[in-house]
Amino acid sequence: MNNYLLAIILAEGLLWFRSSLGKFPPEKFIGNLGGTLTRFADKNPYPWYKDFLQNTAIPNSQVFGFLTFWGEFLVALSLTLGSLYLLLKMGKSGVVKSLLVLGLLGGMFLNMTFWLASGWMSASTDSLNLFMFVVGLISLVYVLKTSKS
After folding, report:
1. N or C: lower Cβ tally within 10 Å for the chain?
2. Which stretches in the chain have pLDDT values below 50?
3. Structure-derived torsion over alpha carbons of residues 102, 133, 13, 30, reported in degrees to the nearest 10
């Protein structure tokens, strides 16, 4: 695999670690998520997503907070460890590439979810989530392409 792309995946994994570590202790993040989601839903420009936030995510904010915290942490772990393993050429890479694929898909899902929820609130939230989604997509295509050869 291309070491430059692996370095970019590593950087994305470290960004996910930073994000997940910012949610420690998870009890505080999970406890505050209902209020955060209420602000996201307030003027959300996507009616179907606003409905999802108001009728599904907010009433179940404890579950969504738990899933978000662990989702971010597991994405960070898979991207960071997978890219380091491949960068350091530590052996056969079939399982590691599968781990990267799962991490990239998970990260893309989280980025799109965050973008739909809060991308409209600021240019930086909009740009960062779309950028990370595109980097994940390019990386995913490359990992899948190199897995077949």
Report:
1. C
2. none
3. -90
CA 109 vs. chain centroid, Å, equals 6
Q: How far apart are CA 82 and CA 103, in angstroms?
A: 9
Any idea which residue has 């009890």 for tokens?
27
CB 46 within 8 Å of CB 115: no
The answer to whether 114 touches 131, Cβ cutoff 8 Å, is: no
Cα separations in angstroms, 115 against 102, 112, 148: 20, 5, 31
- Distance CA(66)–CA(96), nearest Å, equals 26
- Position of tokens 């999802």? 52
Task: Please check whether residue 16 is in contact with residue 106, taking contact to mean a CB–CB distance below 8 angstroms.
Answer: no
